[in-house]
């Protein structure tokens, strides 16, 4: 039987164009150890673990006539050095230069004729630091058979990567005749699917993407009753092919203190800080606000299998991501009231009993946020962009140091993809006492994303000092 893409995975390929590449990224910054950590060591580290990720050595092969969805086949010309690339900033490279490079890398589509991932080893950062920038297509990471590369290469203790010998032998690629025969055989059993496949491949995937949403746990059921479009505003415009990227560095302790003072959860405080920043950003653009003005956020949350009592890896990551819609009260001037409104809205989702608390996610092996952000992007990508203004993913990470080889991970910033009509996407990850925001914006519509980043810091300070 052919290893055929699911309907949801195929839809991510069909809707992709030059303005909306469908990959999820991450920026990991490491301290270079005294023993050194260079490109060759990274290649050894990743190459030695690719056996655990067979999808990373497979490419997508289309079926002639689009009689069936594409299939995964082994890349007989797989070249690890093509996928792991080396770059450098002019020393001493600044964070601004790094994030400008990240924006340009993220704006480029992955080559469709090769396995759908890339990693960039970037040297030259000030302070003897190096960065690893990863790009993985949404069709690759499903949380069951394939996790994100960033989760696989990080360990809780330093260890020198061992040189590896690539003894992988690819399977022979099926012929066009075999692809057609397989498609005809499946079409006889499910004739309606043939029409759907041709329709989707003809760039009508947005009309059918909603039908595919049910393959992601909880998404369709959560939104089945929703009919109202998202509030209009500058966040919902047709995006260009350019990107801008900015980050925010905060401390987890600050969020915990605000939670202790005003109630709710750390995630509520994160959303409240973002809400305050978006309020100031809208005012800076002279957008009129009333006390009832809101921005609708799509907030993917990990959920557990209702039949699984333990927080095991399969129970947490097995396509179990629910996409919740939360109206952020940007019209409310009182920061504590904003937090309370968000807390009440999120409590309704938490009361469902399926959402996973941070302590449960931390039991997942490796650096799970990389995979969970990818699953969050899948949940968002399966829905119409007309029903939300901004995507916000927040995944807690380990509060102990993690290592790639002997290099210690210092910071980790998610890079979430943009939908066709979303000018801003925000990813948040906590790690070793820090909370790190990655803001990916459209270069035309959100050219001032660095202002939003600064406003998140100001909004957090406002919550810390609030005595309302």
UniProtKB/TrEMBL annotation:
Top enzyme class: transferase
Annotated pathway: Lipid metabolism; Glycerolipid metabolism; triacylglycerol biosynthesis
GO biological process terms on file: biological process involved in interaction with host; glycerol metabolic process; response to hypoxia; response to nitric oxide; triglyceride biosynthetic process
Reactions that this protein is recorded to catalyse: an acyl-CoA + a 1,2-diacyl-sn-glycerol = a triacyl-sn-glycerol + CoA
Taxonomy, superkingdom: Bacteria
Entry keywords, A to Z: Acyltransferase, Glycerol metabolism, Lipid biosynthesis, Lipid metabolism, Transferase
Cellular-component GO terms for this entry: plasma membrane
EC number: 2.3.1.20
Annotated InterPro entries: Acyl_transf_WS/DGAT, O-acyltransferase_WSD1-like, O-acyltransferase_WSD1_C, O-acyltransferase_WSD1_N
O-acyltransferase WSD1-like N-terminal domain mapped to chain residues: 5-270
Gene Ontology MF terms in the entry: diacylglycerol O-acyltransferase activity
Residue ranges occupied by any O-acyltransferase WSD1 C-terminal domain in the UniProt entry: 318-464
Family: Belongs to the long-chain O-acyltransferase family.
NCBIfam families in the record: acyl_WS_DGAT
Protein name per UniProt: Diacylglycerol O-acyltransferase
Species name: Amycolatopsis rifamycinica
């Amino acid at each position: 039987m052919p290893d055929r893409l699911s309907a949801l995975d195929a839809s991510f390929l069909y809707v992709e164009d030059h303005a909306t590449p469908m990959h999820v990224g991450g920026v990991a910054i490491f301290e270079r150890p005294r023993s050194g950590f260079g490109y060759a060591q990274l290649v050894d580290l990743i190459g030695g673990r690719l056996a655990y990720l067979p999808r990373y050595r497979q490419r997508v092969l289309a079926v002639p006539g689009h009689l069936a969805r594409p299939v995964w086949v082994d890349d007989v010309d797989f070249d690890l050095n093509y996928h792991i690339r080396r770059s450098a900033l002019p020393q001493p490279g600044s964070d601004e230069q790094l994030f400008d490079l990240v924006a340009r890398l993220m704006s480029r589509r992955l080559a469709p004729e090769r396995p759908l991932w890339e990693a960039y080893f970037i040297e030259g950062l000030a302070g003897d630091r190096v960065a690893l920038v990863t790009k993985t297509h949404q069709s690759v990471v499903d949380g069951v058979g394939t996790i994100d590369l960033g989760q696989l290469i990080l360990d809780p203790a330093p260890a020198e990567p061992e040189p590896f010998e690539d003894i992988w032998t690819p399977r022979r690629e099926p012929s066009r005749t075999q692809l057609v025969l397989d498609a005809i055989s499946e079409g006889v059993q499910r004739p309606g699917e043939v029409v759907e496949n041709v329709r989707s491949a003809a760039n009508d995937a947005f009309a059918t993407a909603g039908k595919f949403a049910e393959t992601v746990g909880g998404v369709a059921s959560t939104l089945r009753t929703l009919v109202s479009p998202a509030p209009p505003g500058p966040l919902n415009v047709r995006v260009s092919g350019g990107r801008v990227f900015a980050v925010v560095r905060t401390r987890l302790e600050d969020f915990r203190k605000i939670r202790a003072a005003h109630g709710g959860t750390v995630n509520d405080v994160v959303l409240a800080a973002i809400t305050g920043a978006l309020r100031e950003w809208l005012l800076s653009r002279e957008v009129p606000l009333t006390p009832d003005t809101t921005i609708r956020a799509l907030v993917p949350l990990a959920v557990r299998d209702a039949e699984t009592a333990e927080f095991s890896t399969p129970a947490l990551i097995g396509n179990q991501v629910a996409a919740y819609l939360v109206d952020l009260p940007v019209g409310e001037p009182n920061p504590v009231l904003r937090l309370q409104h968000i807390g009440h809205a999120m409590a309704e989702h938490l009361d469902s009993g399926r959402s996973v608390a941070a302590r449960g996610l931390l039991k997942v092996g490796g650096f799970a946020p990389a995979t969970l952000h990818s699953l969050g992007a899948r949940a968002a990508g399966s829905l119409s962009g007309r029903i939300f203004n901004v995507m916000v993913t927040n995944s807690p990470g380990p509060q102990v140091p993690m290592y790639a080889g002997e290099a210690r991970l210092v910071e980790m910033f998610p890079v979430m993809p943009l939908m066709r009509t979303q000018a801003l996407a925000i990813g948040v990850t906590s790690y070793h006492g820090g909370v790190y925001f990655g803001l990916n914006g459209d270069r035309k519509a959100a050219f001032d994303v660095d202002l939003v980043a600064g406003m998140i810091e100001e909004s957090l300070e406002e919550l810390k000092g609030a005595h309302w």
